[in-house]
Structure formats: structure tokens, C-alpha cells
DNA sequence: TTCTGTTACGGGAGGCGTAATCATC
DNA sequence: GATGATTACGCCTCCCGTAACAGAA
């Protein structure tokens, strides 16, 4: 099942529309980003992006996942802040 | 960063209050459950459970994570349904 | 030929289960 | 001794980066 990292990578690819650019921004290889996207597509049984020679473009089903990803990622980031805080 | 599986295991341990019972319910070994809980504690820098000889009991910080985990897991399960659905 | 995405491949890290260990009752 | 959690250890899968490949402008 998908890790939070995969969702964060997915989110960034949606923003940049470009696997190469995301790989640079997140300091990882092209292939790693490409494969993470492929894994998400397999996991959800849906094509998330259309591939073009200029980059990638979100599909309708990709947009559905994107809305969930935004919510989940922001919750998880919030949790990372809230959980370890000493309760005084 | 934590996977959804880890959060689902955490959630189940909270419900059972017992690592062994969760390992049986989820068909995995004690050690695997134990280590996943330990990993979450390291990741969040907080003790999530008090260990007793009868099982484990959620700490205050564990409760904070639990609320997030509930929300995140239900969102992810919802996404699994929603994303692959052909749009009519 | 340049830009972008995908595939092949090898190495290293991490996850799993078995089994041993520790602690408490 | 029974119960429940942790640790040790070996295996095996999976993830990553490098590099080669494919297609389009």
C-alpha cells in the first residue's frame, strides 16, 4: 500500500507536470519518480497521467487521487508536528 | 515516512491493546507488529504505548496520533474506492 | 540532437518470520 | 509455566541510482 512519500512525489509531479523536474526538486533519480508513479497507477488500477513528450498531464482519475493526496499529506504533516509536542 | 500499513497496524493495536492479538488478527508475526510500533515511535519521536505485562496501553501522545491515523486511514480507503471507478 | 519518460540491472537497505530471550504474573 | 513484548538473525523482497533505450520535436 502506498507510503506517504509516494503521495508526496505524486503531488509534486502534479505541480510540475514533469517527472524530470520533480526528480531534481526532490533530489532523486528520474527512474525512481517514474516507477513510483507507475506503482501508484498499479495500486489504484487507474492511469493517473497522460505521457507526452513535454511531460505528463493529470487524467480525470488522477485528479480524484490528487484531492485525496492533498488532504492526506497535510494531515500527516500536521501529525508530525502535533504528536511529539510535549504536553507540558 | 510511515506507510498506510503501519498506521493500520497501529490502529488495530490501539483497539486490541495487545500486540499478540493484533498479530493474529492481521496474520503477521508478533515481532513484525512490535517493530512497526517501535518504528512509529522513532518516526514521531514519542512513546505511543506504555508496555505492561498484560499488553500495551495508549499514551497521551499516542492518542494524538490515533486521531490522525483514523482520519488518514479512512481517507485512503475511500480513495481506493473512488479513484479506479470509471467515471460513469 | 535534445528533451522527456521508461526499462534493465546490480547493490544495499529494510521487512518478514522463526526462534530465543526477558519480564511479569 | 504461561503470557506477552523485545531482540537476534537470516532470508528475501523491494527501492534506489546508473546507464541504456525509445519516442517526439
Could you characterize what this model shows?
With 88 residues, chain A is mainly alpha-helical. Chain A has one domain: Winged helix-like DNA-binding domain superfamily/Winged helix DNA-binding domain (Arc Repressor Mutant, subunit A, Orthogonal Bundle), CATH 1.10.10.10. The first copy, chain A, is built from 4 helices and 2 strands. In chain A, a hairpin with a 2-residue loop joins strand 1 and strand 2. In chain A, helix 1 (4-16) packs across helix 4. The A-B interface holds A 1-5, 8, 44-46, 60-61, 64-65, 68-69, 71-72, 75-76, 78-80, 82-84, 87 and B 1-5, 44-46, 60-61, 64-65, 68-69, 71-72, 75-76, 78-80, 82-84, 87. The first copy, chain A, binds a DNA duplex (25 and 25 nucleotides) through residues 18-20, 28-36, 38, 51-56. Chains A, B: GO terms for molecular function: DNA-binding transcription factor activity; transcription cis-regulatory region binding. Chains A, B: This is LysR family transcriptional regulator. Chains A, B: InterPro entries: LysR_HTH_N, WH-like_DNA-bd_sf, WH_DNA-bd_sf. Chains A, B: Keywords: DNA-binding, Transcription, Transcription regulation.
